[in-house]
Amino acid sequence: MRLRLILTAGATALAAMTGAAFADVTVSQSNDPTLQLGAQMANLLGAEHKVLDAMPEERLTSLAVGPKVETKTTPNAKTEAPARSVGLIGYDSAFLSAQPAPTGDAQWECLRKAIYFEARGESIKGQFAVAEVILNRADSGRYPATVCGVVNQRGNGGCQFSYTCDGHADSMRDPESIDRAGRIARVMLDGAPRALTLGATYFHTTGVRPDWSRRFARTAAIGAHLFYKQ
Fold first, then answer.
1. For a designed S-S bond to 188, which of 96, 131, 147, 227 qualifies (C-beta 3.0 to 4.6 A apart)?
2. 102 and 21 housed in the same domain
3. Got the DSSP string for 43-81?
């Protein structure tokens, strides 16, 4: 019905314009292209009205409203909570405590373990920074494209993250640190801004100086960690 009203209004306006054109023209009407176009459009709209009048009301409604868009669900929809919108971050306990209890899939588990074993002794900001490095690597195209792939990557006779091959069981025992790492991992995976390390893909403690640190640009120093961009 809405579409029919729109077309009816258009036809009425066009008829009025065409009538005005006929009233204003006093000579050479048969050669006036405006009048010819107006007559053709009037005939076309008249045919469309006949078609619309013959349509069921349901069909007219569907034409006016448009197609229905189906919402697709991901294979992990039953196990993975939908990503939340993350705005400004507070790098403190108050901000983390205000977040919902964290849950997630295998990627979340890999990220919270990496934060726990690599940075649980650091400040909250320092733990966020380590998470940034892991996610920057996953997005860079130079490393595996998943969090688990990044933290478990091996090469050059060693591991990219030492806790994955140091011979110790990856058992998290500190409840407070576990909860904090899980909350940070959840916030970062939900799309929090990565504003601390300026795109860093490497970090090391201040107590060592690996060869690559001489080749890459340092982007940040947070706690006991130095951050670099390749």
1. 131
2. no
3. HHHHHHHHHHHHS-HHHHHHHHH-PPPPPP--TTTTTSP
